[in-house]
Amino acid sequence: MQKMGDFGGIWHKFGKKAVVVCIVLAVCTSVYNLGEKVYNDRQVLGYNFVVALDAGHGGIDGGVTGVNTGVKESKINLQITLLLKEFFEQGGFKVVLTRSDDNGLYGVPSAGFKKRDMQKRLQTIRDAKANLVLSIHCNKFSSSQRSGPQVFFGDEVGMAFAQRVQTVLNDFTNNTHSALRGDYFMLKCTSSPSIIVECGFLSNPEDEAKLCDKNYQKQLAEQIYRGALLYLYGGQG
Ligand SMILES: [Zn+2]
Known about the structure:
By secondary structure, the protein is α/β, with parallel strands linked by helices. It folds into two domains: 1-42; 46-233, Aminopeptidase (3-Layer(aba) Sandwich), CATH 3.40.630. 50% of the residues lie in helices and 14% in strands. The protein has helices at 2-42, 73-90, 113-127, 156-173, 205-211, 214-233; strands spanning 50-55, 94-97, 132-139, 150-153, 180-181, 194-201. Mean pLDDT is 87; it is low at 1-5 and 27-42. It binds zinc ion. Residues 56-57, 63, 73, 137 line the site of zinc ion (ZN).
């Protein structure tokens, strides 16, 4: 009883103030949550945020080719990159492309073209002060069994980004690949998070058929975009 009495006294003393404090806290919390929602909805991050999209290969460098159709990786890379560009731009991001057509970036197709091509990509990414870099490729393996998207990162900065995108792509394609560290030029162009997305294996007939399909390309681009958003904004799923 004594305790009840104490409690009653405390309530009498602080009760009204406590209620007022709780109401103020509740209002502040909901305003904060609303602010956060608006922030996320508008994707404020996007306004000054530059995403560099690099469609691998191009011109005389077609990359790997499809096992059934002979389709060039360079063509599929560009198609997926352009779809990815739409998703990022719709989200309010500034997008810079290293290449926007079928041509390579080496100028004259003479000796040393590959090095010149890669230097041009590096320059574009650095000039744009890219905050995020995604290089889009297709894979090839000696065994036609291997399939599914594979994401690479170069350092700790890119690792979380790569893992996030890999998880989303695994869910999408029902695979269990792990994001892998890779010693690739495109992962060293900037200190910003950079990944290479190998969208699938052109040495695998099923992957090849899917990668040539416009609808699949769009779905894949959407999933890559979703993975990037989850990395940037956090959150589950
Ligand atoms: Zn490639």
